[in-house]
Design brief:
By secondary structure, the protein is α/β, with parallel strands linked by helices. The protein has seven helices and nine strands. It has a single domain, classed as Spore Coat Polysaccharide Biosynthesis Protein SpsA, Chain A. Strands 5, 6, 7, 8 and 9 form a five-stranded mixed β-sheet that branches. Strands 1-2 form a two-stranded antiparallel ribbon. Helix 2 runs antiparallel to helix 4.
C-alpha cells in the first residue's frame, strides 16, 4: 500500500481508530503491536513488536507475552467490515471454550488475525518462533484450536465480507466505495 495501513482512512477515521472504536465497549484494554514510530500518530498504547520481521505470529507472541488478561483478541486493523456483533460473539465464545485459541475459518482457511488467544500459549509460540516457524497455522500446531466455520459467522455477515482485508489499492477503493458511497471500482 506504500504506507502503514493502520493510518489509512475511511469515513474520516483511520483504520486503527475504526477498529478501536468497535472494541471500546467490548474489551478492557486496547494495545497496538507495531513500530515505535506509530506512537506519534496514535493515542493508544503502542507495544513495539519484539519479533519484528517474524510476521503475524511474532506479533501474536508479543501481544500475548505482555497480556494481563487470560483471553486476548488479536485483530488486524485492516479488516474494515468487522461488526461489533461478530466481535461480541467471538469473545463470548472464547470465554466459554476449553480451547487455547478460538478462531473463525472461511473457505480459504483460518482467520488468525481476528481470533481469541489464551495468554497461556505465549511461551509455546515463542519456542516455535525460535525454531524458525513463521506461519501462524504452524505456530498453532499442537494447540487446542476451536474453529468457527462459516455456518457460525455468516449469520453476522451473509455477504461474506467480514474477514475481507485491505491489501491493495483496489481493496482500499472498494472499502471506500462501500463505506463512503463512492464509485465501486
Amino acid at each position: 500500500m506504500g504506507m502503514d495501513k493502520a493510518l489509512l482512512t475511511l469515513g474520516g477515521q483511520t483504520f486503527l481508530a475504526r477498529a478501536a472504536q468497535k472494541l471500546a465497549g467490548l474489551v478492557e484494554q486496547i494495545s497496538v503491536i507495531g513500530p515505535a514510530s506509530l506512537r506519534a500518530e496514535l493515542t493508544l498504547p503502542v507495544i513495539e513488536d519484539e519479533r519484528a520481521g517474524s510476521g503475524p505470529l511474532g506479533g501474536i507472541a508479543t501481544a500475548l507475552g505482555g497480556a494481563e488478561q487470560k483471553w486476548n483478541l488479536v485483530l488486524a486493523c485492516d479488516l474494515p467490515y468487522l461488526s461489533e456483533e461478530w466481535l461480541r460473539y467471538l469473545i463470548a465464545r472464547a470465554l466459554t471454550s476449553s480451547a487455547e485459541v478460538v478462531m473463525p475459518a472461511n473457505e480459504n482457511g483460518w482467520e488468525p488475525l481476528c481470533a481469541m488467544y489464551h495468554r497461556s500459549i505465549a511461551a509455546k509460540i515463542v519456542r516455535k518462533l525460535d525454531r524458525g516457524v513463521r506461519r501462524v497455522t504452524e505456530g498453532l500446531d499442537g494447540l487446542a484450536v476451536e474453529i468457527l466455520p462459516p455456518s457460525e459467522w455468516k449469520k453476522f455477515d451473509p455477504d461474506g465480507r467480514l474477514f475481507k482485508n485491505v491489501n491493495t489499492p483496489a481493496d482500499y477503493a472498494e472499502a471506500q466505495a462501500f463505506f463512503e458511497g463512492g464509485p465501486n471500482p
